[in-house]
Amino acid sequence: MDVGAIGWTLIDGKSMKIKGMGTHVFPVGSENYGSGIREVSKKSLRTQNRVKRLRYNRKLTRKKFLIKLLVQYQMCPLKSSDIERQAFKTCFKNEGFVEWMKLNPYQLRAKAVDEKITLLEFGRILYHMSKRRGFPFGKRDADAKNNLLYTGIPDFNRIGINELEKKMKGGTVGEYFHSLLPSQNVSYQRTDTRIRNRFVARDMYVSEAHQLWNKQSAFYPLLTDELRDKLIGSPSDNSVTKGAVFYQKPLKSQKHKVGKCSFEPNKSRCSISSPVYQDLLAYKWISTIKKEGRSLSQVERDKIYFFFMRNFKFNFREIKEFLNAKSVQFNKKNEDIIYGSKLNCQLSDESIFGMDWFGMTLSEREDVWHALYFFNNRELLQNHARQKWGLGEDASQKIAEVLVDKRHAPISTKAAKNILYFLKRGVSYQLSVVLAGVKNSLNKVWDNIEENDIQFVINRVLDLYKENVNSGFIPKLKEFLLDEMQFSDQETIRFTSSIS
């Protein structure tokens, strides 16, 4: 036997003679087998090739749709009958189309800024933009100052967006690229940087397309707003699906890939930056603090909660000073570094919401968080902040710079709310999980229980835990739920599954 093979032998059971033998070699399941990091799965290569085919087909479909529009409005030398009668690829061999493609798009783009050009020339510009249309980079996705698209790659002479914007000096991308071309009747001189060896944002191309459209529409009544929306989209449309030239297939939702909750297998995990989970993290840490061997009072917990939410990084000495308890004994060291809630710290800053942030309901805070989570366009987010939340110009600019952590917590939103319910009452996190299971098992029945009965359940569970922490707490808790709480078998099963 070997790693990639297995030997076999056939023996006659009566005579015990060997009838045959051989070796079966298993086919290698990877390319470049035994080559270390160069070894890749065959399935990986199939995936890469499939992605290439999909991308090629989508680009061809988009170009075909654009060509049909250009032909329809006399902006391409082809005829509609040619496209319908022939295979689409053969249309590119048309003599008129070949001559149309020979037109210098950079020269036309520089000329169209100030002068009138023909419709065919304008169509050539739009077709060129559809092929070289820049990166659809969302400015809120990451820090632009540290992103390679903006800083460039000096090792490969790849110029970034920041340097390109400086060299454009307020002009269009087409004008700047045309200025890099060698002048007529001047010998070509080799340069280290090609024209296209630059990172260009798609917003630059969109801005140039609208500038050229506004100029040329003054000469041609055919260039209406309706046609503009079909070709390059409306100026007010900030979606990625605008116009045939800049159309981008929307990304598929990846929600199905989010893991399931540790306590509720049918629920997806919540985001680590969601308001509910941030509150849970705050109260979870607060529940570990002991003052002179006792738990904190409700007033002290609420004070520390606001301090936790308004400070991103602090030490425990600052907490003691905040509580006016410098000489009081706590179970934490003064030098312990604690990381608070960065998101709440930013949103509760006086330049955005201030203390009004904590006066909002949970639903209102979740609306703000959802906007910060899903908006990729800074301008759209600023407009939303002014219209929906009544923020001023400075505050809307500040909130557009706030980035949220898009990682996921180990539990669902529902589980977080149930656990938080008991953490706010001063119960430890471990027992809050157990009590959250009780609350979840009762569903809507819990909402109708009076406050005295809720406190009785909490106290009884705490007593059971103290009495049976070493001898088996869960069996005693089940007995309590069946006998005193009169749980049904279904509710008991639901409770057991929620804490396991």
Instruction: Count helical runs.
Output: 24
Strand content of the residues, in percent? Answer: 5-15%
Question: What about the largest sheet?
Answer: 2 strands, antiparallel
Give the integer mean of the pLDDT values: 86
Number of DSSP strand runs = 10
Mind explaining what this structure looks like?
The chain has 500 residues and is mainly alpha-helical. The chain has 3 domains: 74-231, no CATH class; 275-400, no CATH class; 427-499, no CATH class. The chain is 50% helix and 7% strand. It is built from 24 helices and 10 strands. The protein has helices at 42-72, 80-85, 88-91, 95-101, 105-112, 119-131, 148-151, 161-168, 173-180, 202-216, 225-231, 275-286, 298-310, 316-322, 342-347, 356-359, 362-374, 378-389, 393-400, 413-423, 429-442, 451-468, 473-483, 489-499; strands spanning 5-11, 18-25, 30-31, 40-41, 152-153, 158-159, 290-291, 294-295, 313-315, 337-339. A two-stranded antiparallel ribbon has the order 1-2. It has a two-stranded antiparallel sheet with strand order 3-4. A two-stranded antiparallel ribbon has the order 5-6. A hairpin with a 2-residue loop joins β7 (290-291) and β8. The longest helix is centred in the first third of the chain and has 31 residues, at 42-72. The chain is extended.
